[in-house]
Structure formats: C-alpha cells, structure tokens
C-alpha cells in the first residue's frame, strides 16, 4: 500500500478542493478550456524542470512510494499528476475566495 502514498495525498487534495465547484459554483471545471490553458504552461515548465533535475542527478523518487509507472526520462506518473492536481486545487481555492469576497 505504500506505493499509493503519493496518489493518496493527491486524492486528498482534490477531495478538499473539489467541493468548492458544486457548493460555491465557482465554475472552474465547467470552464475546462480556460482551466487547460491555465494548467498547460505550469505542467510543461515543471515537467521540464523535473526532467532536467532527474537527468542531472539532483532529484529522485522513492519507487516504494510511487505507483511505478514512469515516463521516459524517469518522471513518475504520480509527479505528473502533482503538476495538474495542485495547481487545479489552487485555482479552485482562488476562485472560491474571489466568488465569496466579490470585487472588494
């Protein structure tokens, strides 16, 4: 079960943020094109950064705590999902605050 640790943390992040979509009607998931345009640069930059760090030997991942699905270059699927899930949670949180506080 330890190999699912990273995914469990990401799932927890999503559970803690996704409720904002239906409850506060923030519209992040509904505007999926806008979300993709927001996430794409983040994912690209940080994947390239991780791949460079892995290639240089500065960054590694514990195979016991990841799924074992690894892309060429040594990037685990779990890490790629991190670059999607965490920014998405941040956008959900930002939009929830913006919706709640209005144009103050």
From TrEMBL:
Which keywords does this Swiss-Prot/TrEMBL entry list? Answer: Carotenoid biosynthesis, Isomerase, Membrane, Transmembrane, Transmembrane helix
- Tell me where in or outside the cell this protein is found: Membrane
Query: Could you identify this protein by its name?
Result: Lycopene cyclase domain-containing protein
Q: How does it sit in the membrane?
A: Multi-pass membrane protein
Q: Which InterPro entries match?
A: Lycopene_cyclase_dom (IPR017825)
**Chief location of this protein?**
membrane
Q: Does the keyword Cell inner membrane apply?
A: no
Q: Which residues form a coiled coil?
A: none
Q: Which domain of life is it from?
A: Bacteria
TM stretches of this protein: 6-24, 36-60, 80-97
- The UniProt record lists the Lycopene cyclase domain at 5-95
Asked whether the keyword Lipid biosynthesis is assigned, the reply is no
Annotated pathway, please? Carotenoid biosynthesis
Q: Which Pfam families match?
A: Lycopene_cyc (PF18916)
């Amino acid at each position: 079960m330890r190999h699912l640790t990273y995914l469990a943390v990401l799932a927890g992040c999503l559970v803690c943020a996704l409720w904002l979509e239906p409850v506060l009607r923030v519209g992040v998931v509904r505007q999926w094109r806008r979300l993709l345009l927001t996430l794409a640069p983040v994912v690209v930059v940080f994947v390239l950064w991780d791949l460079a760090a892995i290639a240089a030997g500065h960054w590694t991942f514990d195979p016991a705590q990841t799924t074992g699905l690894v892309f060429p270059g040594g990037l685990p699927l779990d890490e790629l999902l991190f670059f999607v899930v965490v920014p998405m949670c941040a956008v959900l949180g930002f939009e929830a605050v913006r919706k709640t506080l209005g144009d103050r």
